[in-house]
Design brief:
single chain; alpha/beta; six-stranded mixed beta sheet; four-stranded mixed beta sheet; about 25% strand; elongated
């Protein structure tokens, strides 16, 4: 039904003169009346008669939909396999949590173990080292994401898989040159200050784990369902993985299945000065 009234609620109007209302009448995509429950009921009865739906909010709060100002739908959809741990308060608690996940997801089930997250403030400027991670994962690649979403900690197995013919670990992040930190003796600590998960190509090639090629309904559905559940109606994509992902999103929108406003920026592999200038 295109016409409905919401009554007995706490409705934020964004009108500085009258920021809160008790009820609204909605006619299609237009707010036809805003005011008290009595006022809105009277409006609906006079203008629409019985032809409207009534929703009793029972004191619940109604807000305008939310704008998500920086996210990566493609990357988030294609990394749904990443293991999200508990909100631990220190390194010891995090590693205890990782051990539990390691038992639940053995090598046969999870050839590349990726866990989120550790807090950068635990380690200061020296950053983390992978000694404890190596003890838990001696025979498969493992990575812990940091709380910035840009840095991470690799175990030694992962570092070896990332190394090129010169013995230097590589991650093809187009945002910035990946920085793999060494200790005072010149050994890699496992800490990478910039390393994007989709570009761990050496690990994917050598571990047998296949990173998803593109967005699908199965991968993207939970991401957009979560946004809609929390009232997000506008998604500003910080950067998109591929042209294929943009095509997927465009086709979903044309079919009326995206159900939100999607704003793209640029495709990550094309992050050149020329491409950015064209975007701007």
């Amino acid at each position: 039904m295109d016409r409905k009234i919401l009554i007995n609620g706490k409705i934020y109007t964004e009108d500085k003169r009258n920021p809160w209302a008790e009820a609204v009448a909605i006619d299609g995509k237009r707010f036809a009346c805003v005011g008290s429950t009595k006022e809105v009921r009277s409006y609906a009865k006079f203008h629409w008669g019985e032809e409207c739906e009534t929703v009793d909010l029972g004191g619940k709060t109604v807000l305008p939909s939310l704008i998500e100002g920086h996210t990566h739908p493609a990357m988030m959809s294609k990394t749904a396999w990443v293991l999200h741990g508990a909100e631990t308060e220190n390194e010891d608690a995090m590693y205890e949590d990782i051990k539990k996940f390691a038992e639940l997801y053995p090598k046969e089930k999870c050839p590349y173990f990726v866990y989120t997250r550790y807090l950068n403030e635990w380690y200061g400027l020296e950053g983390p080292n992978n000694k404890r991670l190596n003890e838990i994962f001696p025979d498969r690649p493992a990575r812990i994401e940091d709380n910035s979403g840009h840095g991470c900690l690799y175990n030694d197995v992962a570092l070896e898989m990332l190394k090129d013919e010169n013995g230097i670990p590589r991650n093809g992040s187009p945002i910035a040159e990946p920085c793999f930190v060494k200790d005072a003796d010149g050994n890699y600590t496992g800490w990478a200050q910039q390393a994007m998960l989709p570009y761990d190509k050496g690990i994917y090639e050598k571990s047998g784990f296949a990173y998803p090629d593109g967005m699908t309904d199965e991968l993207a559905g939970p991401f957009f369902d979560t946004f809609r559940h929390y009232g997000v109606s506008v998604c500003m994509d910080g950067a998109t993985d591929t042209e294929g992902d943009l095509k997927y999103l465009y086709e979903k929108d044309m079919k009326g299945e995206l159900n939100m406003h999607y704003e793209a920026t640029y495709v990550l592999p094309d992050m050149t000065d020329e491409a950015i200038e064209k975007t701007i």
